[in-house]
Amino acid sequence: MTVAIVESLPMIVLEKVTKTYFSGSLAVEVLHGLSLRINNGEFIAIMGASGSGKSTLMNLIGCLDRPTSGRFLFAGRDISLLDKDALARLRCSTFGFIFQQYNLLPTATALENVEMPAMYAGIPRNERLARACALLTTLGLAERLGHRPGQLSGGQQQRVAIARALINGGRVILADEPTGALDSRSGQEILALLHRLNREGHTIILITHDPMVAREARRIVTIMDGTIVADTDTTSDVKPGGMVASTLADEAPGRSIGWVETVRIALHSLRIHVFRTVLTLLGIIIGVGSVVAMLALGDGAKQSVMTRIQAMGSNLLMVRAGSPNMRASGLAATLMPEDAEEISRLPNVLRSVPEMAGTVTVRLGNHDIQTSATATSADFPLARDWVVESGIFFSSDDVRSYAPVVVLGQTVLDSLSASGVDVIGRNLLLNNVPFLVVGTLVHKGATPFGTDMDDTVFVPLSTGSLRLFGRRFLRSINVEVADVNAMDATQEAITTLLTLRHRTVDFQVRNMASILETATETQNTMTLLLGSIATISLVVGGIGVMNIMLVSVTERTREIGIRMATGARTVHILSQFLIEALVVCLIGGLLGVAGGLLTAMIAQAMGVSVLLSFPPVVMAFGFAFATGLLFGYMPARKAANLDPVTALVAK
User: Is pLDDT above 60 for 5?
Assistant: First the structure.
C-alpha cells in the first residue's frame, strides 16, 4: 500500500461539531459547536466531569459515531463522506480503543481477543497469532495467552486491551478512563505504557475526569457541558502540525476475513453456548427426521400396495358377473364359459381365463383345513403371472378330460406339509372328492384389500364345475391384453360383445391399469400429506432457529459492538450470524437424516413396509439448508445493522 505523507496538516480536525440524541420527540444536544485540532504524535488528554460530553467526543473521533452537524476531517478528508463499512475499515487500520471496562470478549482467550482486529484486517492466521503473542509477551502476559478475561486481573485485562489496540498498528490510541477501574499501581503501569507508545510515534487521546491522570498528557483539553472551555499545552516540546500518514479507509488494505475464519468464529460461538445450540438443533433434527421417516414410510406403503395390485396383473381386464346395480354380484349366473371363448377371439386379447370359485374342505390324512378353490383354465399362470414353484400346472388336456388334479397355493401347502411330508404326487380330498396334487405355486402375498392370495387351490374348470361346485356359470373372466395402450378400446369391445350376447348389461368390466393408476394417485396424495405434515414441523423448527438467533443477537449485543469497534464490517457480522444459523441447520439436518433413517430401519425391522430413497433425503437436507438461510437472515441482518456505540453500552 502506498502511504501518502502530508506535511503540516493536523491529523484530526473538528469544526463546529454538534451531537444531538433523540428519545422519541425529545432532542438532547450533548456537544454544542465544538472545534478541535489534534496533530500526529500528540499525547492529549480530554478532561471533564461525568456528563460533560467527553465520551461522546471520543466516539466521534474514533468513528464509532457521526456528528449531527459540523465537519470532522481525518488527514484532510471529510469523514461524513465515508459509509458504514469504510468507517469500519478506518477503525480497523488506524484506531485502537482502550476502554475503562476493557470490553474484552468474555468467551475468548487473551490471544483470541488480541488477534480479532487483525482478523478483520484480513491478516493470515499464523501471522496475526505471532503478532498477538509478541505483543502480549512484550506487555508481560506471556503466561496468560490462553486465559479468558474472567481469569485475569484488572490490570492484565487492560494490557490485553492495549495489545488489541496495537495489533493493527494503532496509529491513534483512544483511551477512555484507562485507569478508572484499576488500583493505583496498575494505573501507573498503564500510564507508563501509554507514554512509551507515544514515544514510539502513536497519537494518544486520553479521556479522563481525573486531573492527576490528565497531567500525564502534554496537552489538556477541558470540556464542560459539551463545550471546550480550556486547551492547555503542559510542555513546549511538541510542535504543532507534525507529519500525518494518510490512512483513510479507501487506502486501507483490501483484504478481508475469509469464510474459513467466519465458520471458525461461528463454531466457537456455538460451542461456547452449547445449551442454546442444542435447543436450536432439536427443532431441525425433529423436522428433518420427520420428513425422511414419513416419506420413507409413505413410499414403502405405496410400493407395497402397487406390488400387490401388480401381482394381480396390471395388463388385465376383469369381467365380473352381475350388473353394477346388483348386490352379491359374484353369485349372479350371467357369465358362461362360452363368453370366455368368444372374448379370446377379440383383437388385442392374448388370453381369456374363466374362473369359478367356492369354499372347500381339504383333507390330507387326518389333517383338515378350510380354504377356497378356483376352477380355471390352463392359461391361468400365464395370465396372472403366477409361477409354478414345484411340479406342474394342469394342462388344457386335463381341462378337456375332466382330470381330478389340483395345484396348491403356498398357504395351503404350508398347512398340509407342516409335518414335513411332501404332498406332490399324493391324493387328497376336496369336499370328499379325491384329487391328485400335481404342483404348487410360488408365494404371491395379499391383495390390496388384505386377502391372502395363497390361501387357495386350483383345479381344472371342467372338473370343478362338475365335481365340486355343480354349476356352469362363472364368477369372473380375466382377460390379458397384448397392448396396454389399447386397453380402453379392448374394454369397450368386450362390453359391446357381452351386451350383444346377453342382450343386457349383467356384467362389470374392471380395468386393472385404471385401478393401478387410481391407487398410485391415492398413495401419492397420502405421501404428499405425510411429507407436508413433516415439512410443517421443519418450518416450525426453522422459526425456532430464528427466535433463538434473535435472542442470541440481544444477548450478544455488546459482543457485536466490540467487534465493530475493532474493525468488523457489516458483512462480517452478517456472515457470522448467518453462518451460525446455517451451521446449526446443517448439523441438525445431518442428525435429522440419521435419525429419520434409523427410525425407518426400526420400522422396517418391525415388519412395516419402508422404501428408502436418495431424493427425499436430499430434499430434507436441502430444506434444512434453506431454513437456515431464510430464518437466519433476519437475526443476522439485525445484528449487522446495530449501531456500534449503542451496542457497546448494552448491558
Answer: no
Q: What residue segments make up the domains of the chain, in order of their start?
A: 4-255, 269-307+518-648, 335-505
CA atoms within 13 A on the CB side of 147: 13
Q: Pairing mode, if any, of strands 172-176 and 95-98?
A: parallel
pLDDT at 462: 93
Instruction: Name residue, grid cell 474484552.
Output: 104
Q: Is 224 left (phi over 0), alpha (psi -120 to 50) or beta?
A: beta
Rounded (5°) CA angle 327-329-334: 130
Q: Between 57 and 614, whose confidence is greater?
A: 57
Mean pLDDT computed over 183-211: 89
Adjacent-strand bridge partners of 204? 43, 173
pLDDT band at 461 (very low <50, low <70, confident <90, very high): very high
What φ, ψ does residue 29 adopt, rounded to 5°? -90, 120
The CA distances from residue 338 to 341, 343, 472, 508, in Å, are 5, 9, 10, 17
Strand-pairing partners, residue 648, are none
- Under a CB-based contact definition with an 8 Å cutoff, are residues 52 and 225 in contact? yes
Architecture of the domain defined by 4-255? 3-Layer(aba) Sandwich (3.40)
Calculate mean pLDDT across residues 426-451.
84
Q: Determine the Cα–Cα distance for residues 231 and 45; give it in Å rounded to an integer.
A: 10
Residue 15 φ/ψ region, left for φ over 0, alpha for ψ in the -120 to 50 degree band, beta for the rest = beta
Q: What is the DSSP letter of 449?
A: T
Sequential DSSP letters for 214-235: HTTSSEEEEEETTEEEEEEES-
pLDDT 10s digits, 467-516: 999 898 998 998 888 887 788 888 899 999 999 998 888 888 887 666 65
